[in-house]
Design brief:
Length: about 400
């Protein structure tokens, strides 16, 4: 295969190979063509050549995305659009190309889906801002990915990318129809980019960079903010300022064809031992953590005081308990304990790595459910008393301290 044919789009074959390696680490769900990675890899070099050849010649056209629904915390369903594998690779190529050129333009307080930025950095920045400013606007943008205006999106792309072929491919991805679950195709009505698309997070960041970040910094430089994709927290000095800024934000979002979700947007007060004003809302959530007044002990003299601190939210504690409860082997007394540990350990690693940074006590209390379930399981398996099953579990833990990941990390 000739990899050096003169092409109209400056994309090299190795860029497609690198994109393939990145995308393959992600989701395994197939698109509307039902092609799996196993099938794609039977002729991986030839398939990648086809993707490269079409991208580099400007003749690449994506297929429709397959719509799937996943449950949200509020009981409603979130719609995802799953592109076919080849479209995911193509999107990754263009995402990598764009990201190298525009990521440096983004605001330092934009943390979501960016190289060298993380959710933990965003969570820590919110924590630091809460020490400095007393009031918080906890914002929720309504149906953000579904409402992104295509015309405004393309204007943003043109503003930061000179290459016309980038604009052309972004337009094609924005216009991809959606295959509904009944098989019908739904055309885009000039708005929306699918959650599930590889390039969608970058486009979302670009859209909110101009719609929100730049505007807020220019018109309200005295406030601080942290944004992770469409999850935004704004920090203000007074309640009056917070109310004024919130109204201004609503107006600005309307100019960007967006609106806030009123029932999930609130102004909260960061009450602690220094700040004792009365306000009905003294709590907000961000990236799975709940920020609120909590009892703490001074390391200096051991005295109790009230801090405004972050811990794993109640809703995420509940979600973890549900996952633990759903392990199928709890009622199988013929199984070995290692069989129970195996499906839980991968999840435990993720929970502890993410929530353990600020929530050791709350997370430990949540994960203790595993030990309680193990005690019940041992009682049924060996037909012994509660006390003896506790003793047996302690002996097992002493003999096998790494059997469960939360044992290994001291969450017991």
């Amino acid at each position: 295969m000739n990899m050096h044919i003169c092409k109209t789009v400056p994309i090299e074959y190795n860029q497609v190979v690198n994109a393939y390696r990145k995308v393959k680490k992600g989701g395994k769900a197939a698109g509307i063509d039902n092609e799996s990675w196993a099938e794609f890899d039977k002729n991986v070099e030839g398939n990648l050549y086809v993707v490269w050849n079409r991208l580099a010649s400007g003749s690449y056209h994506p297929q429709a995305v397959r719509e799937v629904e996943i449950p949200k915390k509020d009981g409603k369903m979130r719609k995802l659009g799953i592109p076919i594998l080849r479209d995911r690779i193509a999107q990754q190529v263009v995402k990598d190309y764009m990201e190298k050129r525009i990521d440096g333009l983004f605001h330092e307080n934009s943390y979501g889906y960016r190289p060298l930025k993380s959710a933990h950095q965003a969570i820590e920045q919110v924590r630091q801002n809460c020490y400095k400013q007393d009031w918080v606007i906890d914002m929720d943008i309504s149906k953000f990915f579904d409402e992104i205006d295509h015309e405004l999106m393309i204007k943003a792309v043109e503003h930061v990318m000179e290459e016309k072929w980038v604009k052309t491919y972004v337009e094609r991805w924005l216009q991809m129809p959606v295959q509904k679950q009944d098989g019908t195709l739904q055309q885009k009505a000039g708005k929306g980019t699918p959650q599930g698309g590889v390039i969608s997070p970058l486009l979302a960041n670009l859209y909110l960079h101009f719609t929100f970040d730049v505007w807020l910094s220019r018109h309200n430089p005295q406030v601080n903010f942290v944004r992770y994709a469409d999850d935004v927290v704004v920090h203000c000095t007074s309640k009056v300022e917070a109310e004024k800024v919130l109204e201004a934000i609503k107006g600005r979002l309307a100019e960007g064809k967006l609106q806030i979700k009123e029932e999930k947007t609130r102004i909260a007060y960061c009450r602690d031992y220094r700040r004792k004003a009365r306000h009905e809302v003294v709590k907000f959530e961000f990236l799975g953590f709940s920020y609120q007044p909590r009892a703490r002990k001074s390391q200096r003299d051991g005295k109790s005081f009230t801090a405004f601190a972050a811990e794993i939210s109640q809703s995420n504690q509940k979600r973890i308990r549900e996952v633990i409860r759903e392990v199928k082997l709890w009622r199988n007394t013929e199984a070995e304990m290692s069989s129970i540990a195996k499906p839980l350990n991968a999840k435990l690693r993720g929970w502890i790595a993410y929530y353990g940074k600020y929530s050791i006590r709350s997370l430990r209390n949540t994960l203790m459910m595993i030990d309680r379930k193990l005690i019940k399981w041992l009682r049924r398996k060996h037909k012994i008393s509660y006390r003896k099953s506790v003793e047996k579990l302690n002996l097992i833990r002493q003999a096998n301290p790494e059997l469960f990941y939360h044992w290994k990390m001291g969450y017991c």
